[in-house]
Queue: 2 jobs
Job 1
Amino acid sequence: MWLLRAFEERVSELVGTGEVSGLVHLSIGQEAVAVGVMDALRASDVVYSSHRAHGHFLARGSDPGRVLAEVMGRRDGLCGGKGGSMHLVDREHGLLGASGVVGGTIPLALGSALVARDAGRGDVAVVFFGDGAAQTGHFHESLNLASLWSLPVLLVCENNGYAEFTPRSAHTKVAHVVGLAAPYRIAARVVDGNDVLAVLDGARELVAVCRAGNGPALLECLTYRLRGHYEGDPAKYREATELAEWREKDPLLRFAPRVSADEAVAAEREARAMVERATVFARQSPFPDPRELTTDVRDPLRNVNG
Amino acid sequence: MRRDGGVVVIGEDVAEGGPYGATRDLVAEFGDRRVIDTPISEAAVTGVAVGAALSGWRPVVEIMFIDFITLALDQLVNHAAKARYMSGGQLRVPLVLRTQGGAGVRSGAQHSQSLEAWLAHVPGLAVVMPATPADAAGLLRAAIRADDPVVVVENKALYYEKGEVADGALVPIGAAVTRRDGRDVTVVATSRLVGEALAAADELAAEGVSVEVIDPRTINPLDRETILRSVSRTTRLVVAHEAATIGGFGAEVAAMVAEEAIDRLAAPIVRVGAPFTPVPASPVLEDAYLVGRREIADAVRRVLRW
Ligand SMILES: Cc1ncc(C[n+]2csc(CCOP(=O)(O)OP(=O)(O)O)c2C)c(N)n1
């Protein structure tokens, strides 16, 4: 969790220095969700992410230097600088895509789950999305499809109470996203998304459901983003008292009693050192050659026709 | 499908064969594991197909009428078309989206459109439009083997055409075909209008006019060379399609020829296409809407009169 926190703090600094440009959504405050869920997975599972993606990649094992280089638009980024913060991919780690389209990766995960179900090895597909995405057609169509086809897909909703600048109550009368699971007979749990062990416990239980062929499953993690929606958002739409309350529930503070003070200090120090090295790596990486602009679009035709 | 176990067909009523019988009998041979009926959820179903493609299958997703592609566009345009690029080449999307468009069956504005130009405008997608039974089979086969997404746009009026189809033949994507050799005017026509252009050429031959008819077959990537070579010889060009003239694919052909070969042209280029209205339902209005042999022949006479 410390790695995710230190990484995002660094990205925020780099937005300040102008070294990171574009829309950047940080997951500060939501680290326990990514870490808890990833710990319940195995290497052959596949994972799809959302626009708030950095934490998912780091928690799954992506190299922090390559993630940062991508966010900075550098050649050694995971995607050679063509993806950027909202479109990270790390195929080697089974991370098949983040998306700038809210809700857009949910059906993609169903597709991978369909292939996994067919292969019969018990692999699952996981997709992270926000509570705002739960109002999209993609989500509602996907609940029905996943349930109809008994797909081994774990839908992880990071309910941070807001979609951009608007509280959940202004978007829906459904208090909890899991409320939508029952009509489709989907296994579901709500967990304290700031308690990494609660997330891990919920994820383990639901991943087991999927592996056993009884998927899909929906895990709703109640959490809060401690920064604005994107870097630069002054977040005037929420009360200082609300923010203060959630600072008390910071996932790092929540986990602290579980380890010794020394361990906590060491974990933070190690994470900050990793981020330091990642920063050096990313800064040293050149920008892509402008000739890369037109590569990776499609195969040349002779391959298509071969 | 016999050749590659990863090829699956997915869409509404595909097991029944669909409204035009295009996938009839597939389920008998390949079973419902590979011929997958879906609920009416175009957005998610297209996403499922994209996700399955990311996980290694070669799905052929069917959108029953191109009019409903509006619902699938997010997955097609934002995900399928861009995954390879955004991932810096880590991902491939070997997806085929089969659909059909076109008017003439009195079904009105929401079941008769020609929307291919939208799709041809999206980097990452290839768009093919077969005009003959052999091309319908050969292009589809090439599309399935391609490692990048291909949209196959059939024309419902052509479903009743009969023609020889060689077993297993591939029709290369991106290769035009000259349907008729001629000296005086080049007509570039797509889909249903290929037959109309050939009929117009017969009519004009009786007047002593020699028309060359080129069928691009793939509208993007376009076989520019075949068109330019022909126009350089005939010095006159008519471009014909069923879609509206404004913003249509014909505008791209006309602009390309103007850029590359305006010095070879003896007359302005003339475009034949639909008026800028929705497709009407009443037979009288729809007949007035549709362009065909007569409009092409008139256009040829016009470029010759210059
Ligand atoms: C389809 C779509 N509509 C709108 C947006 C603009 N947008 C970006 S993030 C966001 C809010 C998403 O809220 P939620 O899903 O709860 O995720 P969170 O940002 O809270 O993590 C919106 C509306 C978008 N990216 N995609």
Job 2
Amino acid sequence: MEVSDIIKPENQVFCKTKLMTDNSLSYCPGCGHGTAHNLTMEVIDEMGISEDVIGVAPVGCSVLAYDFMNIDMTQAAHGRAPAVATAISRLWPEKYVFTYQGDGDLAAIGTAETIHACNRGENIVIIFVNNGIYGMTGGQMAPTTLAGMKSSTSPYGRDIETMGSPLKITELIANLPGVYYVSRHAVHTHKHARKAKKAIQKAFENTRLGKGLSFIEIVSNCNSGWKMGPNESNIWMEENMFPYFPLGDIKVDGILKK
Amino acid sequence: MSELKLMKGNEALAEAAIRAGVDGYFGYPITPQTEIIEYLMTERPELRTGMVVLQAESEIAAINMVYGAASTGKKAMTSSSSPGISLKLEGISYLAGAELPAVIVNVVRGGPGLGTIQPSQADYFQSVKGGGHGDYKLYVLAPASVQEMADFVEDAFDIAFKYRAPVLILSDGLIGQMMEKVVLKPQKLRMTNEELIEKNGDWAVTGKKGRERNIITSLDLQSEKMEARVRRLMKKYEQMEKEDLRFEKINCDDAEYLIIAYGSSARISQKAVELGRAKGIKVGLLRPITLFPYPKKALFDLADQVKGILSVELNAGQMVEDVRLSVEFKVPVEHFGRTGGIIHTPEEILEALEQKIIKNGSIRHHKTRESSIL
Ligand SMILES: Cc1ncc(C[n+]2csc(CCOP(=O)(O)OP(=O)(O)O)c2C)c(N)n1
Ligand code: SF4
Ligand SMILES: [Mg+2]
């Protein structure tokens, strides 16, 4: 019996996401970025919109998202993806436009662009990967770094007296009238990933219906930046990140959840 | 249909943008160019042509909106004045690096800092010496009349798309605010999405219908690839120098002295040339219309004919450096400028020519020669 006799489409339970390229991922083993990419591409593929999607990559570990997502993409300056996406969506209202951004990109340098694109209710999807750290530049403090959490620029732990509290930008954004859908997820287990995928799907459906801005936060790990093994980092995330950034819907169909 | 109107420079530029079939304008208010976005908002171009006009939350957002629009092959522009242009520079560098066509307008005011809202030409260095980070240049057009404020919009987009590169219209508060007669071109239709895909589909991100995906980026982590990108940019700039240099010579045929000036300084210098000629001084004017590419060869050749050159600018001495480089010390070159928003008068310019060049010329000339021998 040959391998090809065994691996047939009808008995395949798992395969590479069609809309991902064959380039090997540049992410550290165990990093959540790859799964977040996969889920986004699965949704776009299943909705049959891959030829009508324009993605905007950030500056951060996912700057090379365009190497992996097999769709039309443009790469924005650090933090400016929502402004880039705004213009694309305004000039191509029939297209599906999304940004994919990290927490430094979206909630520090790009805070103004994020808040104002949300406040204008741009008809776009924002996928926000919150790993509580600057992964790409080697583990510096992010606006979302937890109180007491160590990073290379908060080597004695984040002191909220002098460094401020971790920013819940997602809750802030949910309060803006232009924002239609806000949901927070994780992707480190199959169960979590399935839920996250549903949310991403709902977000792109909102674009189809012209509902305005959908914002999906994915609380993720950065095992390299946190200086932990992949497993250990996922446990640490559940124990420390989830209590501060609780998972679930925050705003659905324009209505804030109590 | 063409139309003759009396308009402010800023308004003429805005109207010309609608008529040129521009797809998107993104801006943030700042004096002395706010009339551009005010005019566009009032004119409702979304009803006239479908043009999108958006007031951004900052100049940074505005230039990145231009980046987004340009990524999709649309005709996009922004305008600002000096402090706002400083904020846009990262975005402008990205546009150059990612090889995107776009038009940026700077209606210059005095600086540094918050400076003054009065006219100035103190952003010459910023415009032609990079400004933003990295190895790039901007094609820079310098209008000297309200008519050119209007005409240069289409010219700028032609160049931007010919080279897939950002183009700067470097105006100033005087040209932007003054009113003159202007002939406006007839309305051009905006490109349809189908036409755009036909023309720009090989690079623009429009959704990958019927083709391999397109990617817009300025990132090359492999050194060889990055160097190849820089070389590609340098090739474009060389080609601009060969094919798209623009300048104007006024009364230069028999000139013994030369004034060089661009934009509003050129307008005022033209009057100074008339005053000089009336006094019997054989003075001519070289007006660079593009500041990059720069009329180096024209200057080099004129240096064989004239006894001295005065660079007239509304700044503390910026373009004068390029004049000196161009003439390679063949003749004395001096600078005359006012700052702080003060506009030089034609009489002042003529006096400066007489004092700095005609009277002192031969002495300076000698000194320069000696020092260059040493
Ligand atoms: C203007 C500018 N400032 C700083 C940087 C350096 N920089 C690159 S990525 C990054 C942080 C990215 O962190 P985040 O957005 O959280 O993404 P992650 O890598 O964690 O996914 C920084 C500061 C830059 N490229 N550009
Ligand atoms: S540094 Fe962190 S965010 Fe970046 S790839 Fe590695 S684990 Fe992921
Ligand atoms: Mg991060």
